[in-house]
Amino acid sequence: MHRYQPAQLAALISLISSTKGSVICSNVLLSNPSLLTSLIAVYICRARTASWYAKTSTCPPDLQVLVGVLRLSAGHSRRMCRLLCSEWWHQVRFLKDCLRVTCQQDLSPPQVNYKYNLWLKLCNQVTEWLWNQVRPTLPARTRTKATSEAKVLNLSECDVPVKHLDVLSKGPKFCVEPALRPAELVSVSRSVARRVPEDSRTTCVAECTDVLLKHRPRRVHDIVMSSVVDFLHSSGLTCVVSDKEGFFVVLTRGLFSEKGSVAIAKNFREVSHNPSKIKKQAVELLKSLSLDKLVNKVKKEMGDTLDVFFTAKTHKPDIPFRTIVSERNTWLQIVSRYLQKNLESLVVADPFQVASSDILVDFLRNNDSGGLRAFSLDIEDLYYSLPQAPLLQSVKECIGNQEDEFEFTSRSGVSVEGFLEVLRCYLEATLVTWNGKVFAQKSGVCIGSCVAPILSTIFLAKVDRAIQGSLVDLAIKVFRYVDDYLVFVDRCVFIRKMIDVMKVFREQGHGLTFTCEVPRNDALQYLDLQLAFSPDGLCWRYKPRSQKGLLDYQSGHSRLVKNGIASSCIRSAISKSCPHLIRQSMCEQAVKLRQAGYPDAVIAAVSERLLKTIRAGGKLAATERCKGSRPFSVIPYIHGVSHRFKRVAARFGVNVVFSAKSKLKDICPRLQHRENKKSGKKGKCTMRHGIRFVSCVKGVVYETPFSCGHVYVGQSGRCLNIRLREHHSSLKGTPTSHLALHCRQCGCTPMFDQTAVLFRHREQLTRELVEACFIRKRGEKCVSHPSVLLHDKEFSFLMSTFS
């Protein structure tokens, strides 16, 4: 503080104190340090008290006296308490300025600071003593816990400790807040700033870094997932997710392998194909069709076969497995994305298909349903049952039925016949590896394929048109959602009509297998609706078929997600139920929300918003969000950081969407990765290095020393030996890198065998940020240049980790 500031502070305080809305306005009293210290302690405790009531969403007694007999809602109580808390802290800051001015009388600057710190120390002691007296009188902070019966199905004879069962019982959707390192937090802020216009990007980076500098990391419990994985792996156990009911199934590795083999044998056949040759044939086909960009992308992908994983069908006897494939990191994903993009541009004419149950609700509301009765049909194993020859023919017909077939060919870059050849090649190349053997699907399309949904839609549209032409007057109305049909017929001749309709489905179904479900106890379940038949008419209510519980409120998801779940449940119960069953459906959803730990205040707030919508004459049905051109960024949800990033991005016209990074369902792939690593299937470097300078490792920031004392800092996502070999080769010809250029100018030698790994991470942006930090930290000793430029605030934040 320079010599003029004390006088400036004193003048401003004398002006403020005369108009301050405080109890004490006398300048004489404000110059008493003992009184100021006591007031600061009292006001800090009052601010903490207001903050305490805001976090518990309860109304303080003194505020309740003001409102009288009214009972404030939880939201209004929080707002009022936050206003009071803000005002009390405002008073504390003002009184501290008064204390500083009081300490400046006839003292030198060093003595002023010493005296001021002594008074502040005394103030802190008084504050803590006073807070210890007030704290026991405040209401306890209680969290609403889930009351629904948690379930974990253990098919092994091994006893799983209670602490691990408690973790698994939270369900696969439960999210644990990720414990991100400082470099990862900076990477998140940079991913937000990347969507900002170039001229404002530096400002956005600075503001996001300010958020990180003010953030105090709290303790997170990511360790629980690792401890569960360690126990299951060491005990020879594994786990899968229930297919319909949404809980974990624990079983031995032997039983897992046995059930997996049965599931593979059901829809796949063992083949002797060489996956590498299949890829070469696909590349040759793409070259012949002049799809050069697609060829280059396919060549870069190393994976030749699909990964396979399973879910348990716990609703069926013996709990069989469902086989699902993953195209990630394979060349098949590149081809399927190309096919998917072009197939989804087609206009598919289907007389039965509906996008959701809202269409069914509108039909029931607008038609006299008293004389109707219904039954449902389900296609067994839809994706694996699709016959490939008729499937290709239906795609060809769908393309030919478009108004502008030339537009499709120009968009895809190939003729219709060429596109069908690519599709046929893809369907024949979907190979999976299981227990060291290669398998191909017997028919249809694999579950998990990117093109499976659109291909089934095109094929079933052809089937539905044929069925519609044969039904004539047999059915009054037919709906289809994916593989579920709902057929309405005349209730007076229900049995006869049902038999005739099923005969038509079998004749026109191109070999598909249909299973029938009739009303039980005059009730039929279809999608998320339950239809109730009675002599007086037809009623319906919102009741999801799935037995999966709602997301636990203690999950690490954003509050926006949890409020959205509560709003969706209550809105659907009101908008998808007939007037006679609305109350029953809404009460059922409220019970489910309470069982998942949702507080009554959240349920009430959601109901108030829906009530406001009804009062304004709006529609309760969920509306689609406007798909504007506003850029958006997806970041993991981190308590205390993500919402602040969202506010910063909003000032620059960027939307921020939160993702759940660490879900408990990740336990399954972690266990599989441990098993693969143990058996040597994955984790080892597949490259045959001519020169191996160091141990093979991927995704690193490295430092290579020179004989002259300088260093080179770089990063690579590939094997480190590949990058070092490239540096070694660059020394022979014209220097094309900073390392080779330095060696040419200095005459020194790089010591590749002494290369050290400074940091490891799989994301390139995070590695580039750490690389830039080390380059700046090494100063003139480092000869490399950073891939990204660090802001000064970012560098100071990262240095707290690497110092």
UniProtKB/TrEMBL annotation:
InterPro entries: DNA/RNA_pol_sf, RT_dom. Residues 292-535 form the Reverse transcriptase domain. One of its GO terms (biological process) is DNA biosynthetic process. This is Putative tick transposon ovary overexpressed. It comes from Rhipicephalus microplus.
